[in-house]
Amino acid sequence: MRHFTSVTQLGDLRDAFAEAARIKENPFADQHLGKNKTLLLVFFNNSLRTRLSTWKAATNLGMNVIVLDVNQGAWKLETERGVIMDGDKSEHILEAIPVMGSYCDIIGVRSFARFESREDDYGEVILNRFIQYSGKPVFSMEAATRHPLQTFADMITIEEYKKKSRPKVVMTWAPHPKALPQAVPNSFAEGMRLAGYDFVIANPEGYDLAPEFTEGVTVTHDQDEALRGADFVYAKNWASYSNYGKVLSRDKGWTVTEEKMALTDNAYFMHCLPVRRNMIVSDDVIEGPRSLVIPEAANRVVSAQTVIKRILESL
Ligand code: CP
Prior knowledge:
The chain is about 35% helix and about 15% strand. It is of the alpha/beta class. The protein has 2 domains: about 5-145 and about 300-315, Rossmann fold (3-Layer(aba) Sandwich); about 150-295, Aspartate/ornithine carbamoyltransferase (Rossmann fold, 3-Layer(aba) Sandwich), CATH 3.40.50. It starts with 12 loop residues before the first helix and ends with a helix. Bound molecules: phosphoric acid mono(formamide)ester (CP).
C-alpha cells in the first residue's frame, strides 16, 4: 500500500481484519519496521482521537513522529495557483508540501471539506496536492469526502461485537447545530457496502448522500422503520449534499434516545466522536451498556497501525 485515502484500498477484508487482530494482540511486534523512519502528521483542522491514536500507532511501530498544526504557528498557506499573494498568506502550499515531504518518510493529512465549492471538496484538492507534490506516501486522517481510518476502526469494532455473520447496521442522521462534512457518513457507507452487512441509511429529506456512496444501499426518510431489528445503530450528523453545506433541519425527533433504541434488536450504539450529547444522542444511550463509543475510539490505534504498517512494508 502506498497511499491510503479510502477503505476500498484495504484489499481482502478478511486479511485486513486478521492483521488488525494480530496487531491488537501484540502491538509492539513490528517495531523494526519503523526504526529511523519519520511520520509527519499535518492537521488543517482540530482533532483529539486521530491525533493521539495515529501518533500512538506510529510509536508502536517504532517510528518518530512530527505533528504540524497548520493554523497554529505555521505560515498561513495559499492553496490556489495563480493567486497574487499580496494578502495575509505568506507561503504557497506548492512549496510547503515538498518541504514537508523532505523531512519525513510518510505523511498523514487532515483536511476537511470547506463548503466553499462542492466541486473542490469532492475533488479532494488538498489531499491530492499532498499525494502529487510531497514525493512520499500519504494517508488520509479525514479529508473532504472520506474518513477511512475511522471507518476501518468502525468495521473492526462491528466485527468484534457482531453476533451474526451479516448484522443489520443502521446509519442514522441526527441533529447538530453546525454544518458538518459528509466524510464520515460517506466513508462508513463505503465500508458497510464492502463488508456486505445488511446496511440501511436513515436521513431526513434533503440529506441524501452523494449517489456514488449509496449505490445499492437502502435509504429511507423514516428513522423508526430503519431502526426496527437493527443490531448496530451508527449515529452521525452531516450537512446537505444536494443543497451543499446547508443545515436544513435541527429536528430533535431524530436524536437517538432510549425510545428509539427500543425499536432495535437490542442494538449497540456507535458514534465516531466528538458527539453533541442530547442533540445526536441522549445521555442514557451513550452512557449505557450497549454504547461502543469508547472501544470504537480505542480501535483507532489498531486501524491506524494496520495502515501505517502496510505503508512501511511498501517503502
Ligand atoms: N473521530 C475523530 O476523527 O475524532 P477527532 O476529530 O477527535 O480526531
